[in-house]
Automatic annotation (TrEMBL), chains A, B:
GO MF annotation, one: hydrolase activity
Fumarylacetoacetase N-terminal domain segment(s): 1-77
Entry coiled-coil feature ranges: none
Listed name of the protein: Fumarylacetoacetate (FAA) hydrolase
Organism: Mesorhizobium alhagi CCNWXJ12-2
Amino acid sequence: MKLATLKNGTRDGKLVVVSRDLTRFTDASFLVSTLQAALDDWKRISPHLAAMAESLEAGAVPASRFHEHDAHSPLPRAYQWADGSAYVNHVELVRKARGADMPESFWTDPLIYQGGSDAFLAPRDPVVAADEAWGVDMEGEVAVIVDDVAIGASVDEARDAIRLVMLVNDVSLRGLIPAELAKGFGFYQSKPASAFSPVAVTPDELGDAWDGGKVSLPLCVDLNGKPFGRANAGVDMTFDFPQLIAHAAKTRALGAGTIIGSGTVSNKLGGGPGKPVSEGGAGYSCIAELRMLETIAGGTATTPFMRFGDTVRIEMKDKAGHSIFGAIEQTVQRREG
Amino acid sequence: MKLATLKNGTRDGKLVVVSRDLTRFTDASFLVSTLQAALDDWKRISPHLAAMAESLEAGAVPASRFHEHDAHSPLPRAYQWADGSAYVNHVELVRKARGADMPESFWTDPLIYQGGSDAFLAPRDPVVAADEAWGVDMEGEVAVIVDDVAIGASVDEARDAIRLVMLVNDVSLRGLIPAELAKGFGFYQSKPASAFSPVAVTPDELGDAWDGGKVSLPLCVDLNGKPFGRANAGVDMTFDFPQLIAHAAKTRALGAGTIIGSGTVSNKLGGGPGKPVSEGGAGYSCIAELRMLETIAGGTATTPFMRFGDTVRIEMKDKAGHSIFGAIEQTVQRREG
């Protein structure tokens, strides 16, 4: 089934079930008001939501037109957002661009950071920044929402806890990252609010593209209307979601509704870095990666980070070319005052 | 007023108003079921809670005996937990112990990390660890809960957003920190679930001890029944709460119910490091600080981190010697399986 949260003036919005083709929805809020409430009691509630989804496909329940613009992030706020960095290729490039070696352990020990989850952006909200020098960059990623995960859970237990899949724009302020990471405590100011796709789907909606741990489809990232990234999220993912979840649960339990991200999707090309989409490559899911390649090749990065007015669109399509999650589409805006 | 959340088998517990002397409570859940719900609509709901607190003091409402053991953390789960490191003295000592200089900017630019907030421990819950080598340590701190804070809020706006004050044991796994921080993305596995004091109080309950930005009272940290720390939370706090909150809101809005921590409370002594309580000093709010002093003095740390069965108690008393927030009291336990 496919679920979305419509804006209704409340902090957590209203839960609806969306048709497979994303054209219609039926109100689910009389059954359970919010997605978090559904996740809190998933075993009891999800069969009813699934039945509602079937009825919606069959035209057996009242339905209204679904507009992606009306959707909030599926969880407008969450109790946890932890983002992995599973495409180690991407990490290696970041390091290479600044002349730093990557420890061998990065291929065996997942990297993860704790993100802010108290106020996500809606998928069509602007990204607001005070200064272009903050270096706004998108990071196109896949994310999963999990059920309760016990402390010390195994990879198999982690796999069984995956409830929903969605996309995320993990907005990064590249200009603030070096100084903040140098302080040693990780990201805070350099990771402003993220936005998630209008729709979250159960893994069965992905069919063959879901192997229990990752999504084997290209992530379409467009910058100002032009294809920028088409990296396949199922390729070069060194740690799959169950591994990331088990890593996150090593020293503490994870509460239902915890969101775990994949990190920026990134594909190698013939063992080396990728090529732009315009040259037949898979491109990039963030600008930083292209800038790193420019730096490695020519000493300086020439592509700028996002400027006020620039727009990024992040989407994923099934093999028939239909959007699975709807699109994240965000424009960078100057914060006034 | 003083608020607590009683365990009732649900994820968010039941909101109650507690008497000033912590002996009685009256159920507030018919008015608003949870503390998060009260924070979501604070302006409208808090006057009713305040009236209830007055009636409770006057004996004008039904009351039951308040047992700290029955309390969950005031927010059993929260949408954000961000912990500052405002006692820069503590940070300087950590660095000194490993022979690293501290950048001058640490005195002017607050350090903060994003913590996990999806499943806090109750104030009397055990701290569960798989291995003593993880190096379980307490960190005694003060924390505030804020209302909505706009992106780019000023220090004055941040001050006005403080709603509640409480204590926290920001449990740390010292054995896991060096390797995790070396990866560059901050804490994750090395910061398991934190626990908060049984009671959260509005700042007016602190009287003269609250100056709008910090609490000028000793934080009592006892290890296995013996005084370990008596550092004054109002002394050597380089950044007060409004400064920490404004720092946190620089690039993103903070949602109502966001918890901001002070970092480990730490006092200097005559410009240098402190002395143990047994020698007339203010002692320490975490074991690591004592170990750092041992390392600086003699080359090796001799005091071990917490072992299975060890207990820490964290409390703060008013000038008359009465507990303000109730006590956090946690024993370290081996995780089975």
